[in-house]
Write the structure tokens for this entry.
Amino acid sequence: MERSDLTGFSFRSMCAIALALTCGACAFKQSGYGAGVQAERAAAQIAAEKQPAPDTPGMYLALIDRMQRQGLYYASLAHIDAYEKQYGVTPDSTLLRADALRETGQPTASAQAYRTLLSTALAARGYRGLGLLAGAAGDFREASRELTQAVALAPTDAATLSDLGYALLREGDVPDARVPLMQAAELDSRSGRIKSNIALLLFAQGHAKEARAWMDDQHCSAAARTAIRDDAVKVAAAARAYSAGGAGRRARD
């Protein structure tokens, strides 16, 4: 695909596959703030604590995973301790622990847990976690390296592709961000986070009109639009620095 075809390809292709859902936050950002959300999470945590622990390892891991999807990361850490006391440490429990530690602001312990996964069948998730930690710390060059490793191991994982594209944008490497973001969008047309990153890509490419139309088409909330525009300013500054440094296409190993 020639660069001259980029605008039409990005916008028309995304419109063809998208569904009218609300845009979500970009990678490395938390969402779900607010008193109402916190009240719902507190109620869900109380309900979860009243439930007896499942009597099989698989069911227990599913329960912990469900708690984390509800945002109950602190409670999930307690259940992970209970799981590992009963069944032993496994790669699956380690991944759940690493994710919970990352979400509860414990990056050093989280990174240690993710690294133990690199020699297991969950290595892709380990690299992704390390990439998310690096991005959260503002080191997007390191984030892109770790996420490149994750994508190499899980090339069809839409969330990881989207995270890589976002990290590349924040690093300032706009050209290399296009392919993983377009792959992510075609693999998962429902993800609000991916849709937000597509809008950010359009802004980064200088297609502000198309980006605004894309956000309109996806019914992006005011908060999501503000977050995307704020990130677009950061990406533009990073792209200028990247270009001025003569970075070109970096090899990431």
Remarks:
- The chain is about 70% helix and 0% strand.
